[in-house]
Prior knowledge:
Elements: H1 2-21, H2 25-28, H3 35-44, H4 49-56, H5 66-73, E1 79-84, E2 90-96, E3 104-110, E4 159-160, H6 163-166, E5 172-178, E6 194-197, H7 210-216, E7 232-234, E8 236-239, H8 242-247, H9 251-254, E9 257-259, E10 261-267, E11 273-277, E12 280-282, H10 325-328, E13 330-336
Antiparallel strand pairs: 1-2, 2-3, 3-4, 3-13, 5-6, 5-13, 6-8, 7-10, 9-12, 10-11
Domain Fibrinogen C-terminal: 57-107
GO cellular component, one term: extracellular space
InterPro entries: Fibrinogen-like_C, Fibrinogen_a/b/g_C_1, Fibrinogen_a/b/g_C_dom
Amino acid sequence: MLHNILLLFVGLLSLEHVSFAEVPSSQIVNITETREYAERMQNFSRTNFERLEKVRNRSIRVARSCKELRGRYDEREDGVYYLTTGNGMLYQTYCDMTTAGGGWTLVASVHENSIYGRCTVGDRWSSQQGNNADLPDGDGNWSNRNTFGTVESATSDDFKNPGYYDITAEDMSVWHIPNNLPLEFWNLEAAAVLRYHTENRFLRLYGGNLFQLFKQYPVRYNVGSCGDRGPAIPIVYDHGDKESTRMLYGPSSRREFEPGFITFRAINYERAAMAICSGVKPTVGYNTEHYCIGGGGYFHPEQCGDFPSFDYDRLGGYQGWSASREMTEAAVLLFYR
């Protein structure tokens, strides 16, 4: 009897070892259990009038981007700032003032409010009007001047501010942050599922922002064939690496892409267009709905949405074509510099 119990114990240990062998390291970290999270939570639970006054006084600064704030006013603290558009509109956004020299402006976030919805309400980065081939552009928010959401809710809902089309930038930074994580914890190292930036000034070739880039490469159903994708840009990792990026997506998806890039306007076998393939470049095969986000107004009936088919083989199942749960349940924050 004792022998059988020992064998069972050893077997359970072996199973536990196998289950973690293919889990990305970031999935094991629970940010709410870190000391830094506890310290920040304690600090933010108390009213600090000196800090509130400092943040509120940022509204007197005049700049169109976080890069300008850093250069003109020597602002070096991550957090919420006020920016002004070329037409004089004042708005709030988040500035990353520390990563790779700082000066990164948050302009949008892509948040999947319901992975089971198929182009339903909340799918602002694809279509909220149903899966309809007669509406090939869907909501069209990749290339229009609509704005929505607030900076503080950017990990719990879609977000797009005027900087998306107003700022002329050179590079991008992308953060994958767990859904519903409060803004004051975004820059914690343990918070990120994946973080990276570009450094080759590629946006200068495409009008200086995503608004102009997607005018050149429309995110529209039936706009082209599989080979008509947009640019694929090399990235520099701030959290994660090529291997951890590869492991965030499903085993079947890994055979189709090369990690270490951000790709724009990918088109799948069904001629549906997706806006961004985060961290990867499609190379062989065109089942991009399983690892690219955003889109036009029509997909295969079992797809469609801001994360079109990340749950194909069970939500967070980490099998077949399904992306990992941590990738599926994270908002994608888009920054300019």
